[in-house]
Give the backbone structure.
Amino acid sequence: MKYIQIRGTKDAGKSTTMNEVCKRLNPSSIKKLRDKEFIECELGTEIFNDTFLITYKNKNILIVAGAPTEQSRTFTFIISVCIELKIEISLALVSMRSSERKVGYDTLNELENFGTCIFNEQIWQVQGEYKESKEWNERIENLLTLINTNI
């Protein structure tokens, strides 16, 4: 599995970035992780502070929109659910806090155990009308290009 890692502080815009990327991908399905299963959601569901599975170009993309420490789910737990359900992940887009302080969480090492990093970015909150800013649009376009190149 290939993965893209997005790191940032509490309000850096990790989930907002994930939501915008997913919105622009226009996936054919969206599922949300609940306990140990993925529940079908309506198309257009906001991708925010949780774990989702989207289908794009007939491939499964795992979206960890809320940092594992914020969800109280390790990345290993999330992947184990996918393995148990026999879900093949083509790509993972994973957010995490810049520094994990919660005991029992080591997302960087967990990611390395399950895949290959194709991109790792530290993001910062975009000030003002962020959706109109060059910085925001370049961030989203870069992620879309990476996804389309690696899916």
